[in-house]
Each structure stands twice: as structure tokens, then as C-alpha cells.
Design goal:
A: two-stranded parallel sheet; B: alpha+beta; Beta Polymerase, domain 2; three-stranded antiparallel sheet; 15 strands
Chain lengths: 316, 537
Amino acid sequence: MNIASGIVFQVLQSVLVVLIAPLMLGWVNQCRAWLQNKSGAGIWQPYKVLNKLFHKDAVLAHNASHLFRSTPYILFGCMWLAVGIVPVLATSLPFAPAADVIALVGLFALARVFVSLAAMDIGTSFGTLGARREMMIGFLAEPAMLMTLFTASLISHSTSLATIVETLGHRELVIYPSMAFAAVAFLMVLLAENARIPIDNPSTHLELTMIHEAMILEYSARHLALVEWASSLKLTAYITIGIAIFVPWGIAQAGDWTGMLIAIAVLVVKLTLAGAGLALLETVSAKMRIFRAPEFLGTAFMLATLGMLTHFLLER
Amino acid sequence: MADLALLNALRAGAHGSVDADAGPRPSDLTLRLGRSGDLPAAAAVLLGPRAMALATVVATDETATPDGDLKVRYVFEPTAPGAPDRFVTLLVSVDAARPEVPSLTTAVPAANWHEREMRDLFGIVPVGHPDPRPLVVHDGWPQGVYPLRKAFDGSRRVPVEPAVEFPHLVAKGEGVFEIPVGPIHAGIIEPGHFRFTSVGETVLHLDARLFYTHRGLEKRMEGRSPLDAFYVAERICGVCSAAHGLGYCEALEQIAGVDAPPRARLIRSIALELERLYNHVGDVGNICAGASFHYGTATGLRLKERLQQMNERLAGNRFLRGLVVPGGVRLDLPDDLLGVLAATLEDTRAGLDSLMGRIEDNPSVVDRFDDTGVLRRQAALDLAVAGVAARASGVDRDARRDHPHGAFSGPTPPDLHVVTAPDGDAMARVTVRAAEARESIRLIGEFVRRLGPGPLRVALAEPLPGGRIGISAIESARGEAVHWLRTDAGGRVERYHLRSPSYHNWPAVALAAETAIVPDFPLVNKSFELCYSCTDR
């Protein structure tokens, strides 16, 4: 493989995903509005919000430390790196060998730790409230996420995402029962990790009910813009991880320009469907009582474990 | 005779004199206690054996009259369903030089805020009250300045004194957190400060501080023509405009000795039910917002909007203001609007049935509503909780039946089905609201059928009779609101007092919140859906 074209593909994918992440969020929000019989703000609204926030003056609490100020950049960096690792458009990217699925989960955990610390840095009660709830969700979601990814890696005998995608995407259509369990578990983790209903409500103004939003209440202007952008990147990263593992068909090899064009078209279709599905899930359900979240994530972990067991029982 | 037995019971427990008079209305009773020290014993007789509840407490400054004193009236009402419409007033005289009355709060929890308000606004000290903190006046209000005393000039600014931080009741200990919320909130709601003390997510205690929107409206009305003061009463609260306007008008009409014509009474009741309907439908949607059930929130908003647009066609504004006026109603309900009204109500019924179906068939929503924010029946009775909150806790009280007003005060009142539920949780408050909304739709149909030709209002001659008291109790969307109005010798407003349903229900919210976890508080709060403006005045 040509190193140069690999780098071109890597840059292309990273830039493309960063640019379309807000669009993904806009699409989900638009679908939600339609499902609630509203006309909605349009799919470009997140870009307008980002533009507005970047043009505002940032307000910082008097006792904000460097941690609070640097967290948005760390968060954004983590999420950008994550989408660089995931084979969104092509496999065999130069970044891919740098990190496997375990490192990917670690990357998300790193971002979580910084956001939680920044939330407590200011010393407001809402920040601490959100941080402790986020930690409760996080320590339950991460093992479930890892188990899901391990189920996939058992089939491909590798924890590298690129290898998983190549193994699953370039075989004849085989139905893996273990992957069905893993897919459900992954969906549950996706909802929890991205602060979506039924675990959290990304569009609420009720501070006492917030998890993720409570942690970022004190951010404004460019800091908030980065945090919001990182949120949409995280959502896109999770959805593309899901696509890469569970519906990998159409992802190109680096260097294959025709494949790349097809990959982009296929990706758009998959993301459109995924966004509409997410909006539907969020509309038919209310947010659950916070103490139901451990049950929800415990179920996700159990399903992922069942997936692994199924693999050993049926697929070896 | 029941009165004689009551009088004997009161005299048996009293050390001073007890005199009985009829009034304010012919069916009511006013008991004048010679010694204010007899108050707790007298209240115990009314509350215990006679199962009455505190309806309101009205203090008046009569230092400029020959009596030269302050007076406090404790108004009680019967609680048994089907009891006659009657208020019993305990009247005590308070020495202006040493303004003290014994506190009833420990025996009658519903008197708590009334007594603190009396202390703040009149300087009448409830001796033995367990809570020494101010209620209505906030940090910086000067000591010894009592705004509802006649000597206080409401047009002058008072100096702001340096203030210490308000002593919130908070728990201390390892792992105990304090969460201050408000008074300014995200979202478009009124101001109130909530101080939670929590361990983890469990609420240990909630200290709610209100009265940020105290505008001194009762003071503002004093000395005005009662016909002008009506516009202030109607504007105490936006979403209770029709109910408060009607309550003031009925009190005023008692003083003037006139009755609104039958057609006007029907239109008044239609306005009252339309107000209840848009509030209840909107509240069901709002409660869904507390559980993050977006479909429900959006549907509730849509149905409410349709009803408020209907209001605009009826009254010229979305809050039904100016429809009810002293003596009758200002606008007629023309026949061409009746079709629009019927169509809107039919759509609302269909929309509400569909929404309630989606709520009740959705396990994730039911799980949030069930057992959340439980208000026990005894607590509801102790705090004299009103309206939906009371009925959802199994208290069968509705002012439309217990104190007939509007179209219910005619010779053949329509049947009213009072909906109650035993559970006292958020789910009960949602289902009671939905059932009441359906009942309102049925009632409006019934009122429209009864509409006959006739005058819309009777003229009220000014000046109105002096020195008279009018009292009315209106079932607003949030429950019974008690209006108390008295004219001075010149027929002007001498004192007006509104005890809104929210005033009695706020302490119940704090109580219900203590059975819930912190992230469920917005849901608990929305399931009561109380007004701040009505409470703060």
C-alpha cells in the first residue's frame, strides 16, 4: 500500500468526520422534531449554534483553574483521535495500528475523567452532582462496551478495529448469533455513553435531572462550542463504531479511490438510517429513573457476556 | 340547633366570652372571641369534632376605627362531602400596643404560612410559632416596617438594610450535600429558591423560599374603588385570571347585594372550565417534560395552544381576561362561536385520550410516574391542601360542589363528578387531571345547552355599601381559592385578601419531594404545577 495515499485517506476521513458530526446531530434532532409533530430547527442548526458560540466572549468563574480551561481542548482532541482510529470510510489507515479497541475505550475514559474533574473544579453543586452521576454511568458502561468489542474480536482473533472490520466485512454473509447479542448491548451502551434518552436527556433545561449537561453548565462561548462539537463527534464515533462492527459492508481499503466514493455514499445512507432510528428510540421512551440506569447497563453487560458465551458454544 | 351546640362547646373550652353572629353571608357564622388566648381551644373544637379545615386567615388594621385594634379572622370551612356551604370565622381582637396572638401552627399545620405572613406584613406575632424566619419580606427589608398596616405608605420606597444570609434549614453531617436551585431557573418559569439537603440522590429536606414576586397587590387595592381594584385582582396570576376575576366579582357582588344574571353565570362557568381545561391539558404535557417523555410534552403544548387560541376568539386574549366583570360578563358567547367551541373541545378530547393512552401504555413513563412524590392523605388534610393535589390523595373536596359559584349557584345546578384517586403519587395527579379535563369538556357542553336569552350584566351603583364583607371560594384549575373583601365606610376597598390554592399546596410539594430522589424533583414539582404569582401576590 502506498504510504502517501494512506495519509491522504487518513486526513480525508478525519476532516470529513469532524465536519459532518454536527450534521449528524442536526439530523437526529430534526427527526425527533418530526416525530413530535414539530417542524424542527433544520439539520444545519448545530452549525449555527457552533458559529454563534465561537463568536461570543467566554465567561469563566473566578476560581476556574487551568484544568477547567484546557478540558474542552482535551475532550475535543480525544474525540477527534477516536474518529481517526475508527475505520469510518476505509480500513488499513496509518493511524489504525496505533490503537486497538481497548485503547479506544481508554480514550473515551480519558475524556470522561477530564470532564468530570473540570465539572468539580468550579465547585458548584450541579457540577459535582453531574460528575458523580457520570462516574456511576461510566464505570458501568465501560465494561459492557469492552465485552461487546471482545465478542467481535473473538471472531476476528484481533482487538484491532481494522482487522475486525476486514474479517467481518469481507467474508460471505454469515450470521453470528454472538454478534446479535453484542449489537443489542452496544446499542444500550451507545445510548448511555452519549447522554441520550432513556439514560440522560440532552435537550433538558431541568438542572436537577441532568447528567452530562450538569457537568458542562459553567462552560460558555468557544469552550462550550468545543464541548458541544466533541459531543457530536462522540455520537458520530459511536455510531460509526457500531456500523464498522455490525454492518461493515461497503467500507473501502485505503488507496482504493473508487471504493472510497462508494464508501462515502454507503456511509451517508447508514448514518441517515441510524440517526432516524436513534430519534425513534428517543421518542417512544421516557427517561428512566436514575437508579434504573445500573439495571440497564447491567443488562447490557450481561448481553455482551452472553454473546461471548454464544461464540464459544456455537461458533468455534 | 347545631349552632347552639357549637357555641356551647366553644364556651365550655373558653375562659373569655364567645359571641356569635351570622356573617359575612347569611349562612355563615362569625364567632367573636373575647380573649385571644381561647383561640387554640376554639380551633380544636372546629377542627376535631366538626371536621372543618382552615380556609384562610385574614388580618386587618383597624387602629384608625373606634375599635383601635388589629383584628385577625381565622376562617374555617367544612370538609365533609355534601356539607352545607358555610364559613365559620373565629374573630379575635389584637392589642395594637402589644400585637400578639397564640400560634395555631403546631396544632393546625395549615396555619403555618398564614401566621408568618401576618407577622411580616402586620407585625402581629404568633406566640409559640416554631419558625421564626420571615416569609414574605426578604433580605434587606427594614425591621419594624409592616406594609399592610394602614400607617404604611405604599407609594414610598423603604430603605434597604444590610442583611445576613437567610438561615435555611439544612442538615449537616458526613456525605450530606446542599444543592441550591434558583431563584432564577433555566426555562420560562417563575422565581423560587429551593435548597435541597441530600445524601447521594436521596432528599433529606427541601427548604423552599418563595415570595420573590410579592408585588404588594393587596396593599395596592386598598383605598380604590372596588370596580377598579377588580383589574388588579384579575391580574394577580396569568393562568388563573378567570378564576381570580370570578372570585373577586362574587365577593364584590355579595357586598353590593346583587346577583349576576343566569346567562352571565353560565358564561362565567364556561370561562372557568375553559381555564381549567387549558391548564390541565398543558400540565399533563408539562409533567411529561419532567419525565423527559418528549412526545407527551409536545402533544400537551399543541393541545394547550389550540385551546388558548380558542380563548382568544372568545375573550380577545389568550388568558380569558376581561370576560368576567363585576355584575356579569363583558362579552356574550355568540352562536357562531359555539360551533368553533364544540369542534375545539372535541379535538381536545380526542387528543387528550390519545395522549393518555400513550402515557398509560408506555411502561417507561408509568415507571417514572408511579410512586413518585407521594403525598399521604393525612398530610393533605393537615396542610388543607386544595384541588388536584388533594383529590389525588383521596381528599374529596371541590369548591364547585362545596361552595357553589357561577352556574353551580343556580336553583338546578348541573351534576358534578368529583374525581379522586387514593395513591397520592404523580401518576394519580396525572390521571385526576385527565379525568377532570374530560369532565370540564362535558360541563361546558352542558352549560352551552342551558344557555338561554337574557341580560349579560347588572349595573353596580357606586359607591358600594360601606363596611361590608364579601367572601367567596372558587375552584380554580389548581384548587379552591378563597377571596375575602371588605369595603370601608366610603364603599372603597378597605382590605382584600386572596388565599390561593398554591398557598396551601407549596408546603405539600416540599413534603412530597422528601419521598423522592433529587433528579425526580422536577417531576414531583410539575405534578403539583403550582403558581408562584398567586402565592406571592
